[in-house]
Amino acid sequence: MTFAGNKTMNIMRTPIRIMTFSLVLICFQLSPSIAQVENGSSGVRQAQGLPQNISDMAIRQLATLIDERLSYMKGVAAYKWENKIPIEDPVREKVVLQKSLESAKLYQLDPEISGSFFELQITLAKEVQHYWFKEWERNGFDGQGYGDLEGFLRPALIDLGDAILRSLSRLVFQDLSENDWEKNRSGFIRIIDTAGIGRRGKLELFDATLAIAQPGSVGLKTTVAR
Q1: Are 76 and 153 in contact (CB under 8 A)?
Q2: Are 99 and 221 in contact (CB under 8 A)?
Q3: Would you say 100 and 118 are in contact if contact means Cβ atoms under 8 Å apart?
Q4: pTM (2 decimals)?
Q5: In this structure, which long-range contacts are made by residues 67-72, counting pairs with CB atoms below 8 Å and at least 24 apart in sequence?
Q6: DSSP letter (8 states) at residue 151
Q7: What distances in angstroms separate CA 100 from CA 69, 73, 151, 154, one per listed residue?
Q8: Contact, 214 vs 206, CB < 8 A?
Q9: What does the DSSP 8-state code read for residue 175?
Q10: CA angle at 128 for the pair 119 and 110, rounded to the nearest 5°
Q11: What's 223's DSSP letter?
Q12: Greatest CA separation found in the chain?
C-alpha cells in the first residue's frame, strides 16, 4: 500500500478513535459508582416509602398479613348480618384467645406478651364488624356473598393467624433493633387500611407487634381518638 493510501486510512481512523474515546469518556462520567447506585436506590426507595432491606420487608410482610386477616371481618360481619347473629360472642372469643396462646407457645413466643396482641386483634376485628353493621343500617346490605363462616371464613382466618405467628417468630429470632422497627412505623400503619380501623388502632397494632419482637420496649402510648 502506498504512503498516500496509508495516510488516507489513518485520517479515516482518527475520527473513529476520537469518537470512540469520547463515548467511553462520556459513559464513564455518566456512570455512577456502585456506592452511588446503592445510595441513590436507597434514597429513591426511602422517598417512595419502600422497604430498605430484608428486615424492612419482613416487618411490612407482617403488616400485610395482619391487614389481610382484618379484611376478612367484612365477610364475618356479612354472615352474622344475614343470619341475625350478634357481633359479640364472649364464648367464641375465649376459645380463639386460648388457641392463639397455645399456638404462640409452639412458635416460642412469650404467651403473656402475645396475649395482649391477640386481645387487640379480637377487639379490632369486632370494630370492623361494627363498622359494616352501621354501614348496612344506613345504606342497606350490599348483598354480596362472602362465603360460609365455618366452611370458608374461619379456616382462612386460622391459616392467616398461623402465618402471622410464623412471621412474628422470624422477626423475634432476627433480633432486630428497636430502631429497625421504629423506622417502619409509618409504613406499617399505611399498610393497615382495612375499613373500620382508625389511626389509634393501627398504632396499637404496631406497638403490640413491637412488644412481642422487642420485649421490654416502651413503644408508643397512643392518645389519638379512634
Answers
A1: yes
A2: no
A3: yes
A4: 0.73
A5: 67/191, 67/192, 67/193, 67/194, 68/160, 69/121, 69/157, 69/160, 69/161, 69/164, 70/121, 70/124, 70/125, 70/128, 70/192, 70/194, 70/197, 71/194, 72/153, 72/156, 72/157, 72/160
A6: I
A7: 14, 17, 20, 13
A8: no
A9: T
A10: 20
A11: -
A12: 104
12, amino acid identity: M
Q: Which three cell numbers stand for residue 223?
A: 392518645
Per-residue pLDDT of the chain (226 residues; tens, 9 = 90+): 443 444 344 434 434 333 433 433 333 333 333 233 333 334 434 444 444 577 889 999 999 999 999 999 999 999 999 999 999 999 999 999 999 999 999 999 998 899 999 999 999 999 999 999 999 999 999 877 788 899 999 999 999 999 999 999 999 888 788 888 889 999 999 999 999 999 999 999 999 999 998 876 554 444 333 4
- How many Å apart are CA 9 and CA 220, to the nearest integer? 76
